[in-house]
Amino acid sequence: MKLHLAGIALAAILALPFAAAQAAPPPKGATMTSLQKVTKTDAQWKAQLTPQQYDVARKHGTERAFTGKYYNNHERGTYACVCCGLPLFASASKFESGTGWPSFFQPITPVNVGETSDTSYLMKRTEVHCNRCDAHLGHVFDDGPKPTGLRYCINSASLTFAKAP
């Protein structure tokens, strides 16, 4: 899935009413085209993460449906990257997709979530990852609700959650 500059601008405009109250300020050094990268060795990631978090976020694994910590979470707050803490999704954009994974119709800001073509398992999908540390988050599909029509299907193991005050 390729986003054109106009699509990125439209997604950013659509994100404002939903995420403004919950979005954290961009990390120091962030611009519309780059973030200050976080890089660690595999040994450092293994020391920081649980085995499941490491498998999903660093090795592109997938947790089983309906087993993740956040698929049924209905509290208000912000979902961030389990590896680097970058805010990724606001609870206001979360919806029930029936898939067994947390699903969102948009990220807090398009700058924070990157996309890569994924042709594993004889399928063509679009993988999404944290743009600051390259953690695997899940996939994005074009069968989501309005206003974006997108469904970001995200592994709970790739996320942390901060409840809104």
How would you describe the overall organization of this protein?
This protein is α+β, with helices and mostly antiparallel strands and 165 residues long. It has a single domain, classed as Metal Binding Protein, Guanine Nucleotide Exchange Factor, Chain A. The protein is built from three helices and nine strands. The longest helix has 15 residues, at 5-19. The model is unreliable at 1-32 (pLDDT under 50).
Supply the key terms.
165 residues; alpha+beta; three-stranded antiparallel beta sheet; 9 strands; 24% strand; disordered N terminus
Instruction: Assign an overall shape.
Output: globular
List SSEs in N-to-C order. Answer: HHHEEEEEEEEE
CATH architecture: Beta Complex
User: What is the CATH C-level name?
Assistant: Mainly Beta
Give me the count of strands: 9
Major beta sheet, strand line-up: 3-4-8-7-6-5
CATH-assigned fold name: Metal Binding Protein, Guanine Nucleotide Exchange Factor, Chain A
What percentage of residues falls in helices of 4 or more residues?
Answer: 10-25%
Q: Mind telling me the CATH superfamily name?
A: Peptide methionine sulfoxide reductase
Rounded average pLDDT: 84
Note the gap between the termini.
36 Å
Quote the beta fraction.
Answer: 15-25%
The major beta sheet can be summarized as: 6 strands, antiparallel
Query: Over the alpha carbons, how many angstroms does the gyration radius reach?
Result: 15 Å
Count of DSSP-assigned helices? 3
Number of domains: 1
Low-confidence residue ranges: 1-32
Name the structural class: alpha+beta
